[in-house]
Amino acid sequence: xxxxxxxxxxxxxxxxxxxxxxxxxxxxxxxxxxxxxxxxxxxxxxxxxxxxxxxxxxxxxxxxxxxxxxxxxxxxxxxxxxxxxxxxxxxxxxxxxxxxxxxxxxxxxxxxxxxxxxxxxxxxxxxxxxxxxxxxxxxxxxxxxxxxxxxxxxxxxxxxxxxxxxxxxxxxxxxxxxxxxxxxxxxxxxxxxxxxxxxxxxxxxxxxxxxxxxxxxxxxxxxxxxxxxxxxxxxxxxxxxxxxxxxxxxxxxxxxxxxxxxxxxxxxxx
Length: 270
Hints:
Layout: E1 2-9, E2 12-17, E3 20-26, H1 29-32, E4 42-46, E5 49-53, E6 59-60, E7 65-66, E8 70-76, H2 84-96, E9 100-106, H3 116-124, E10 128-131, H4 135-139, E11 146-150, H5 157-164, E12 190-194, E13 197-201, H6 215-220, H7 246-249, H8 257-269
Parallel strand pairs: 3-5, 8-9, 8-11, 9-10, 11-13
Antiparallel strand pairs: 1-2, 1-4, 2-3, 4-5, 6-7, 12-13
């Protein structure tokens, strides 16, 4: 039989197939082949044993999910404070993995500052952007899609899921103000049925990194750079120290200053 892994707890794999759930074990051969089945994998199973993991179209290492159509990056505007570095890093990595990124800003009601310019900028460069009170619009994104819901601890992922489907009743916690971070209220990656699609609620992803990405991959996945890069004097311009660089010329004009500054940090730490 063919199915999809929707939950993993310890060595138990919950596989969904034809509207039924099966608790399966993985064959020992996967360890010898250096294959680790993850949530989202399409598999062949028999007698509650996973025999084969089918080819993945993509996957993320953290959160560990395969065959993803889109990632909704949940971004807190306060408590914890807005972190554009983490947002830009996530967007770059999602783009590199050929997955559609979507941005959802939360806790606008707790914010005193105006963030309209931030919201509008990310829309302008091609991203779908929402506030978490736009529930009807967000629900329409899920049909026939595998969606990952990701964001820093305390950003409001579980709260957003509960707004989308109150039957989930996922646990939420108050922000730990002493640490400036949320507690990890989601302990396992799981896929839930939602609005005729599947959605993953995932643990915090503070260990997310560029892994195998080269500096040129980082450059190429800063999406707004592509509009101006042909005007740079050098074809392979990295937009750092090169003269006559149009990307640097556009800082504060067509390119948000924080985006460029974060790009430099990505390159430096890569």
